[in-house]
Amino acid sequence: MNFRRIECFLAVVDAGTVTAAAEQLHVAQPALSRQIKTLERELKLALFEPQGSRLGLTSAGRALVAPARRLMAEARSFDGAASTLRTGRVEELVAATTSASLRSFLAPFIATIGPDDPKITTREVGHFEMTEALRHGCDLAVSPAAPDGSLATAPLGRVPIRAFVSADHEWARAGVAEQPLSAFGGSTAIIPTRHSASRYILDDALSRAGITFPHVTECDDGQTILALAAAGRGVGFSTDRPRYGAHPILVLDDGGGDGRPLALPLHVAWLPGHFAEAAIAAFAGRIRAFLRENGITLAE
């Protein structure tokens, strides 16, 4: 089996057209088409069929996507392990992360790594897709979701879920720094969608406190939540750092949470026995220190 042809197959799956896949792989379109045709001849299966201007997978093609991704992940892991044994150092690590974590702290952390450290590249995935990402080529995951019991993990700390109000709100003018969750009960709320782990933490606290918002706007992007709050369109709830002049307020869990701030726990996770396990664990410690030093996580 030729790994390059498997890579070409997955590129077309992800891009939807041979033209787009060829651009991503930096090869000529005819050469990529030949690779796909050769793979189909080797397998004695048709993998794609025309669907308008795009290529759709046949039933056989759909069935082979997951095994192909596992195969490429294992090949990359093997190559990485061999390189580490040969050179005595880890050259590159791929981190699965959410877009919010990438923007707020992971990209700034990557900017601090030195020339002797492994290069860290990232892949944006959903909150609840971290384990799958690790099994399909990522080396580590920075995850707010509860760790899968099959994974090795290291805690990074707790990121507060803050409420944000406009600069002319009475709480902002009074310099209010924290409020119990019950204080927000009559507010128009701007909250994350259920694609976000912080939404589940907020919903749980609201349920325990018996609180409902009279009007709710859902939004997937934390920066937009802050912008709407700054514009006075409601109280925004987000783990993002303050921006746009929005005033941040720590939200205290008074619904059976002992009055502690609502917060999202973060973890680094990886597959046990990974060839770069020691390097990943070391990076986890450095990320944890970076979060503490920059005031991103709550003091323990």
Can you describe this structure?
The chain is of the alpha/beta class and 300 residues long. Helices cover 42% and strands 23% of the residues. It has helices at 3-15, 18-25, 29-43, 59-87, 99-110, 130-134, 170-173, 197-209, 222-230, 277-293; strands spanning 48-51, 54-57, 92-97, 119-124, 140-143, 152-160, 162-165, 178-180, 188-192, 215-219, 235-238, 247-252, 263-270. A 6-stranded mixed sheet has the order 8-12-7-11-9-10, with helices on one face. Strands 4-3-5-13-6 form a 5-stranded mixed sheet. Strand 1 (48-51) and strand 2 (54-57) form a beta hairpin. The longest helix is centred in the N-terminal third of the chain and has 29 residues, at 59-87.
Helix and strand topology:
Blueprint: H1 3-15, H2 18-25, H3 29-43, E1 48-51, E2 54-57, H4 59-87, E3 92-97, H5 99-110, E4 119-124, H6 130-134, E5 140-143, E6 152-160, E7 162-165, H7 170-173, E8 178-180, E9 188-192, H8 197-209, E10 215-219, H9 222-230, E11 235-238, E12 247-252, E13 263-270, H10 277-293
Parallel strand pairs: 3-4, 3-5, 8-12, 9-10, 9-11
Antiparallel strand pairs: 1-2, 5-13, 6-13, 7-11, 7-12
Helix pairs in contact: 1-2, 1-3, 1-4
How many beta strands in the DSSP annotation?
13
State the secondary-structure class. alpha/beta
Largest sheet: 6 strands, mixed
What is the overall pLDDT average?
Answer: 88
- H-E string: HHHEEHEHEHEEEHEEHEHEEEH
> Spans of 5+ residues with little confidence (pLDDT < 50)?
none
Helix percent band: 40-55%
